[in-house]
Amino acid sequence: MLQIESELLLIIRSVREHMSETQKYCVGIDLGGTFIKFVALGRDFRPGPTLQLPTPVQEGPDGVAKRMVAGLEQLMQSQRLSREDVLGVGIGAPGPLNLADGIVVAMPNIPGMENVPLRDLVSEGAGIPAVLENDANAAAYGEFLCGAGLGARHMVLVTLGTGIGGGIIIDGKIYHGANTFAGEIGHIIVDPEGEECGCGQKGCLERYCSATYIAKRAERMIRQEGRTGKLAELLRDNGAITARDVQLAAEDGDKFASEVWDSGMYFLALGCVNICRLLDPDRIVFAGGMAKAGDGLLGPVRKHFKQLHWSLTDILTKIEIAGLGNDAGVIGAAGVAWNAFD
Amino acid sequence: MLQIESELLLIIRSVREHMSETQKYCVGIDLGGTFIKFVALGRDFRPGPTLQLPTPVQEGPDGVAKRMVAGLEQLMQSQRLSREDVLGVGIGAPGPLNLADGIVVAMPNIPGMENVPLRDLVSEGAGIPAVLENDANAAAYGEFLCGAGLGARHMVLVTLGTGIGGGIIIDGKIYHGANTFAGEIGHIIVDPEGEECGCGQKGCLERYCSATYIAKRAERMIRQEGRTGKLAELLRDNGAITARDVQLAAEDGDKFASEVWDSGMYFLALGCVNICRLLDPDRIVFAGGMAKAGDGLLGPVRKHFKQLHWSLTDILTKIEIAGLGNDAGVIGAAGVAWNAFD
What we know:
The structure is a homodimer.
Chain A: H1 2-22, E1 25-31, E2 35-42, E3 51-54, H2 60-78, E4 86-93, E5 97-98, E6 103-106, E7 114-116, H3 118-126, E8 130-134, H4 135-146, E9 155-160, E10 164-170, E11 173-175, H5 206-209, H6 211-225, H7 230-238, H8 243-251, H9 255-279, E12 283-287, H10 295-308, E13 318-321, H11 328-341
Helix pairs in contact in A: 2-3, 4-11, 6-8, 8-9, 9-10
């Protein structure tokens, strides 16, 4: 009789724990220069609807922190979450950050956002513990938890935009490196005799395949080498070209555009081979504006990757496009909070 | 009174556990083509004296496994260790290996060593659990635990010999990658238009700075470009040059030798910069034959590293020479066993 009672007690306790577990959430906040995004993430890692508010840039750091707290409360209200339901808040912000102390060291597009203890401002304002993470790392973690990295153990996210950034997931955790500078994929040197990069190195990967440089290269070749075709017409009409223009013209069969786009994809593939040689990840995932090209990016990158990759083993690392679009960062920020506060 | 009794009991138990803990050991075995090495490592990670036996190459896989068991027993006897004192055995062997199943897939210098379940042969022969690890990874772990990596959290070992290999330690553990191919530092591509490598890629790092290629480059420049100096004399007298010859002649002020050596050190530094951009380790440690050059290697590598490194942050990764010499592998193998069986 006593044994049955104690077993029943165990079952009741386990059910209670399970019920309270499934009711817990973490909230992600993604701080950008234009918008702040919010999302709640339950233990099932299925993100709820996102909330998006404008970043009150002109109100400075305090105004931004207040908006973050207000948005958090708005999200909780709309999803009927009490303070007790929320284990913690994860904040994704652009670097440079002091992660250990939760401080935004600098954020050029918000005046006054220098050495601001953003983590504590939000945490104290909301009465909920908070954690700060680099936005690229948060996006990598979001893709890992709920996007193109599902099922992987080691994953590298490569963000393709103005520059090239990245985030590394090792054994299911964000890898920061010894000084939080890991994953600077855009600054792998691919040509030590190459063009000078803003970082002080020469021939960095992002000088060959970021959106900025693909567009720049096309413009330069038109202006300096008199190259013709669709892109030359666009440049004449609009005064500028984007990487998207190059990609679309290439898909339309424009020869010069194909040449420029393909050269960018070649260097991207070279970066992937070097990532494989050092890290041997399950998956490399492309995100950011340029990843919208989808197969227009994957096709040529995979082709060059296959040609550049060694023959000692089969190709085992999969190259994919991110699955969460612009929500990867905010979802990942919530995941970071799960990691910190569960 | 009851409380004091129970506290005393706790103290007695803790002392007992500690006593039995300090008596436990793991044994490392490093299998090479010429010698097999053995060492016992206590919980204090201070390695005991090593035992070295010739590898009975002509006796095939079974003979090699028997020698490993015999050496293990000899080591245990000489250090008065019973079977109960040894928690486990770590075996370091050259790749390719199937780590999960403890199988040596191939080892060209031992006839018949193909798909041999070496881990189980040793474990069953000795009656002690065993674990298999790649020898470069074991060496990295050895340096991390007891050598130049002491105090680091993330460390990369670069072995400089015939080729360039490596091992990555992340958060104090060997990082294998998704398919056990991580840390192939010698096959980072540094010049995609460069020389073909045996691996099927072009312009791999080891084609520019391994001992083999530094010597080859000097020979080629003497033969094809008619370069003169000490190395040309050595080549005429001996019919061959080694990387060590190049380094010593460079230290003696020979101009041509300095040029060749410095070029190798430049590429080594380039590899280090790319390691930092991706992994941001606390430390990069050089091991292998070429590392015997000591400051003759560190000086020029650090100089080029400083010049190639970005200016966004100070240089925070330290570059050092391995501290355990040829014992890193066997000590690390014992460490791997601690990790597996403690």
